[in-house]
């Protein structure tokens, strides 16, 4: 027994200190695919994910405890970390220069509009399926960063900056889409309580509250109120991130930095691998050849694989013509096209929106087909984008 725990501790230390987070996400993804498509392990996997346990907390009824806990509670910390990153980059990093962010910000808008339009045109006759119009509109930052880390010796700073800013604004758009379009049966009473809680967080922000316990308690209360109001509770992470501040100084360390330093490891090494394990179990055994020609699959595939790069490139071209110059001098339209293709990797966030779109339809096959579309388009976009970027910048 002692030997077992010793080995486990050594493995955990190696994981937290040595393994690259982004490569590990790829490993978890492919292991999950193997587990979900093996006749001996798939039953165990899906019974664990959809554990049919009902429980009640403070009048809230929950079911599928694993599925619910990961997608509704743990992902709150993911959004919290994203907002803290955005705030840091806005005030201290590459987003601090207003002039530099305009081109990729406008490009991100095109990368949202055209994929959503493509999906909608494929599925406008089906009320249930077209609810997932936002599935191909988002980019997965962890996997994009993984590609960048592999190509680190090839790519110039301007390209990395453009792609990172593009991904950041893509995440902002994704958060806004989820907050506005993916909510259920709004309760005015609990929405009002949520609003009061947000005002209280704003009050703490302006008066430099130094009690971490009060701050976290408000976040937990807001999570329950948003859940009860019909708005997805992961939006709690957005408000918690917005109303933490560099002005909160606790033991000479700002609250923002203290929270981010603790959240980064927790999110990157624990939450994202768990989320991918829970949500990327695409069982190809349930998918037939005809499903590759379904409008749901085609809308997602062409939205991510074609809509993303075309929308990003076209909007970038419009912006540079309007300004009569390129903001990032050493990039050309082919470089931006490559960035658009890489942005077709929509894995984690796209799956998240799939669950929000079709979870109430009780049609698991619908979810599997949608995941398959995300998987194939992201895989092809990642490989093609990698090859194009390497070819364009290798000689430099």
TrEMBL record:
It catalyses: Na(+)(in) + 2 H(+)(out) = Na(+)(out) + 2 H(+)(in). GO terms for cellular component: plasma membrane. Keywords: Antiport, Cell membrane, Ion transport, Membrane, Sodium, Sodium transport, Transmembrane, Transmembrane helix, Transport. The chain crosses the membrane at residues 23-40, 60-80, 100-122, 134-155, 162-182, 188-207, 212-227, 270-289, 295-319, 331-358, 364-389. It comes from Candidatus Purcelliella pentastirinorum. The keyword Transport applies. The keyword Magnesium does not apply. Na(+)/H(+) antiporter that extrudes sodium in exchange for external protons. This is Na(+)/H(+) antiporter NhaA. It comes from the Bacteria. GO terms for biological process: regulation of pH. HAMAP family: NhaA. One of its GO terms (molecular function) is sodium:proton antiporter activity. InterPro entries: Na/H_antiporter_dom_sf (IPR023171), NhaA (IPR004670). Belongs to the NhaA Na(+)/H(+) (TC 2.A.33) antiporter family. The gene is nhaA. NCBIfam families: NhaA. It is a multi-pass membrane protein. It is found in: Cell inner membrane; Cell membrane.
């Amino acid at each position: 027994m002692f030997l077992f725990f010793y080995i486990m501790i050594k493995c955990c230390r190696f994981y937290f200190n040595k393994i690259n987070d982004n490569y590990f996400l790829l490993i978890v993804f492919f292991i999950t695919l193997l587990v979900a498509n093996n006749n001996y392990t798939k039953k165990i996997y899906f019974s664990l994910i959809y554990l049919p346990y009902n429980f009640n907390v403070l009048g809230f009824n929950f079911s599928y405890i694993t599925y619910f806990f990961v997608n509704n509670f743990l992902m709150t910390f993911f959004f919290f970390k994203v907002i803290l990153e955005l705030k840091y980059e806005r005030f201290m990093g590459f987003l601090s220069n207003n002039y530099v962010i305009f081109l990729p910000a406008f490009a991100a808008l095109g990368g949202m509009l055209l994929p959503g339009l493509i999906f909608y045109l494929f599925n406008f006759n089906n009320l249930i399926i077209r609810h997932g119009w936002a599935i191909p509109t988002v980019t997965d930052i962890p996997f994009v960063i993984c590609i960048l880390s592999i190509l680190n010796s090839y790519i110039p700073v301007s390209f990395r900056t453009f792609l990172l800013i593009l991904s950041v604004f893509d995440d902002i758009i994704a958060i806004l889409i989820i907050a506005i379009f993916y909510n259920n049966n709004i309760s005015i009473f609990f929405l009002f309580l949520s609003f009061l809680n947000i005002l209280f967080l704003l009050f703490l922000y302006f008066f430099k509250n130094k009690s971490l316990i009060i701050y976290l308690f408000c976040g937990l209360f807001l999570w329950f109120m948003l859940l009860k109001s019909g708005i997805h509770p992961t939006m709690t992470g957005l408000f918690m991130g917005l109303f933490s501040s560099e002005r909160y100084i606790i033991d000479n360390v700002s609250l923002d930095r203290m929270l981010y330093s603790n959240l980064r490891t927790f999110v990157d090494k624990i939450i994202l691998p768990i989320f991918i394990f829970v949500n990327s179990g695409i069982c190809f055994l349930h998918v037939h050849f005809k499903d590759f020609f379904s409008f749901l699959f085609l809308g997602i595939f062409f939205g991510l694989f074609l809509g993303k790069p075309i929308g990003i490139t076209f909007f970038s071209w419009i912006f540079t013509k309007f300004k009569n110059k390129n903001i990032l001098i050493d990039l050309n339209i082919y470089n931006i096209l490559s960035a658009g293709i890489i942005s077709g990797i929509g894995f984690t966030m796209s799956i998240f929106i799939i669950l929000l779109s079709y979870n109430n339809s009780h049609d698991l096959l619908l979810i599997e087909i949608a995941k398959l579309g995300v998987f194939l388009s992201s895989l092809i976009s990642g490989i093609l984008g990698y090859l194009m970027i390497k070819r364009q910048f290798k000689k430099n």
